[in-house]
Backbone:
């Protein structure tokens, strides 16, 4: 078990999705000896490996021409970070490199709270580890909002045709030439439905109200698309299928009439929730809860020495490759900022 050589860490990275592990790789190679709080496997919010742990086939990440399973890709990210002796906060304490591999994605610590009001900053872990640090990279991501139905969750985690990202999964062979459905009525839902029409034979938009919340131009785009059919005042009460989705149960919110709809895939587009609760409002966020970057082209926040990367600060793209790019920027920004403070 290895502890820091200094009473104050150079940089602590919170989160372990593509942004977090990429930041760790860059920071470790820059000799910053990063410490990562990855999250807990069965925790409330922060999941080791991030949302890709809920994704099956990933075909749009460069370097994997045959595609790769989401969890397998995150294991590769993790192992690359460990190669450079990135340290990880585990239930047993702080470990590095080979020490961590035996407990891959299990036994890690979540972040409990941080204090950014004074320097050095304080980061407290869920298992009691407390460290001081000169810089912090926040890469906690954003979790997709779900309906909360048992079979929805089971099929989403098993690759059974339920997804929260059409851009990630919609082009997979399993969904081609099938009748698909998108749940939601905002801009994101319209974007998801429009994207799916490139591959599906038909796309239903299941909207719980009688009008879209999307902007006028987005709504018109959907309404003018011959492949999109709207199911107004409708909610999903159950997801059908054993190994793969076969359909959904629907309920008309005005008449209470229930019916079943056969489907080859279901996509949730009812928003994402950025994982920022542990910050207790210490950094500014937008109306949706995403961290606001001081300079949109970088990773800097309103507090010097605190950097944000990945989906926690990105409500537009939310892709693994963009998150990884932001993780790279955050590590480089942290390295340069530490150098300016005379910390190397």
Residues:
């Amino acid at each position: 078990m290895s502890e820091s050589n200094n009473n104050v860490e150079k940089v602590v990275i919170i989160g372990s999705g593509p942004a977090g592990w990429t930041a760790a790789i860059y920071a470790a190679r820059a000799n910053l000896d990063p410490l990562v709080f990855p999250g807990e496997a069965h925790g409330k919010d922060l999941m080791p490996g991030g949302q890709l742990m809920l994704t099956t086939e990933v075909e749009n990440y460069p370097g994997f021409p045959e595609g790769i399973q989401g969890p397998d890709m995150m294991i590769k990210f993790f192992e690359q970070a460990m190669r450079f002796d990135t340290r990880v906060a585990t239930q047993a304490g702080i470990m590095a490199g080979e020490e961590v591999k035996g407990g891959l994605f299990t036994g890690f610590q979540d972040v409990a709270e941080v204090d950014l009001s004074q320097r050095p900053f304080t980061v407290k872990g869920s298992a009691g580890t407390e460290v001081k640090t000169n810089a912090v990279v926040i890469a906690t991501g954003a979790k997709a909002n779900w309906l909360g139905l048992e079979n929805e969750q089971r099929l989403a985690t098993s690759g059974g045709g339920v997804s929260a990202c059409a851009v990630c999964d919609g082009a997979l062979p399993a969904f081609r030439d099938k009748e698909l459905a998108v749940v939601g009525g905002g801009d994101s839902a319209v974007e998801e439905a429009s994207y799916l029409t490139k591959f599906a034979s038909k796309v239903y938009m299941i909207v719980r109200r009688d009008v879209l919340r999307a902007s006028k131009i987005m709504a018109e785009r959907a309404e003018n698309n011959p492949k999109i059919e709207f199911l107004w005042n409708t909610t999903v009460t159950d997801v059908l299928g054993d190994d793969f989705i076969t359909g959904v149960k629907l309920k008309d919110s005005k008449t209470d009439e229930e019916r079943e709809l056969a489907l080859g895939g279901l996509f949730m587009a009812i928003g994402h929730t950025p994982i920022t609760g542990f910050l207790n409002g210490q950094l500014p966020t937008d109306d949706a809860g995403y961290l606001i970057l001081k300079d949109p082209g970088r990773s800097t926040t309103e507090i010097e020495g605190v950097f944000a990367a990945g989906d926690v600060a990105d409500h537009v793209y939310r892709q693994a490759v963009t998150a990884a790019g932001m993780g790279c920027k955050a590590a480089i920004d942290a390295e340069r900022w530490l150098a300016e403070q005379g910390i190397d």
Summary: Helices lie at 18-29, 70-83, 98-101, 150-157, 166-169, 187-196, 216-223, 320-340. The radius of gyration is 21 Å. The first strand starts at residue 8 and ends at 14. The chain has two domains: 8-143+272-340, 146-268.
